[in-house]
């Protein structure tokens, strides 16, 4: 299938998902709307990844695959020789009845995507040990402070120097606090304007408005560095 045909197929699956929701959801009120990344943020994530020319992307948290489909669209659009989308989610089958993976398959993206059914704190060090180097990551997993912190610890070693890490729910106190360590101590810089008018996160209603945008993109330093422990900045 040609690249523009593949893109058309992905866009059709994305459009139907955004308009009609997934074929299956958990039995909770407005579950899809509450859980999934909104279409506009997904479009902005896709455009950012296209502008970076990504070949390998790591994603934490699949659920209903709105963000995964957008990442897949970016990888197909960029047309690098060996696109790879590595998705980590221990609960896709148990909690989500494979809804997200089935959507990726219906979009034809299972040819470039792989799903690791393990917690990110286990999968990421394994990927690092295998020598994975990725251009970007999208993190929308457990949202617990300690798990986000550990995800970022390993992603920092997996993402190439100058690569991107994009957070969902960046205004949630647990996520905000974990990210702040890396910004204040390890030279990560926010990419301004990557998510203009980003939808306020649903899990940060108690956070100040200016920090409550949903998605946040950060660039890793190039060259990378390890600061001396004496230069620790409380975060
Ligand atoms: C908010 S949802 C992701 C939504 C998804 N980005 C979308 O657009 O539909 C969070 C996901 O993280 C997964 N998750 C929870 N704990 C995790 C962990 N320790 N490692 C990886 N994924 C985890 C959940 O199973 C769930 O699928």
TrEMBL record:
MF term (GO), any: methyltransferase activity
EC identifiers of the protein: 2.1.1.-
A biological process term (GO) from this entry: methylation
Top-level EC class: transferase
Alphabetic keyword roster: Methyltransferase, Transferase
InterPro entries listed in its UniProt record: SAM-dependent_MTases_sf
SUPFAM superfamilies: S-adenosyl-L-methionine-dependent methyltransferases
Name listed for the protein in its UniProt record: Class I SAM-dependent methyltransferase
Organism field: Streptomyces sp. R41
């Amino acid at each position: 299938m040609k690249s523009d045909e593949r893109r058309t197929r992905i866009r059709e699956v994305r459009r139907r998902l955004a308009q009609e929701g997934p074929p299956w959801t958990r039995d909770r009120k407005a579950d899809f709307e509450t859980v999934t990344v909104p279409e506009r943020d997904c479009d902005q994530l896709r455009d950012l990844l296209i502008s970076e020319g990504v070949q390998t992307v790591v994603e934490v948290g699949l659920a209903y695959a709105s963000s995964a489909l957008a990442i897949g669209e970016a990888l197909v659009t960029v047309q690098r020789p060996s696109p790879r989308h590595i998705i980590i989610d221990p609960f896709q089958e148990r909690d989500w009845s494979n809804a997200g993976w089935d959507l990726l398959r219906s979009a034809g993206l299972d040819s470039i995507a792989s799903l690791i059914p393990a917690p990110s704190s286990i999968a990421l060090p394994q990927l690092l040990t295998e020598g994975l180097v990725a251009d970007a990551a999208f993190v929308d997993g457990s949202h617990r402070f300690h798990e986000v912190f550990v995800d970022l610890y390993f992603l920092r070693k997996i993402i190439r120097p100058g690569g991107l890490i994009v957070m969902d729910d960046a205004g949630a106190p647990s996520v905000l606090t974990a990210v702040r360590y890396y910004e204040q101590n390890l030279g990560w810089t926010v990419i301004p304007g990557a998510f203009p008018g980003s939808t306020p996160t649903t899990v940060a209603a108690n956070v100040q408005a200016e920090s409550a945008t949903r998605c946040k993109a950060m660039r890793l330093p190039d060259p990378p560095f390890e600061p001396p422990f004496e230069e620790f900045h409380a975060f």
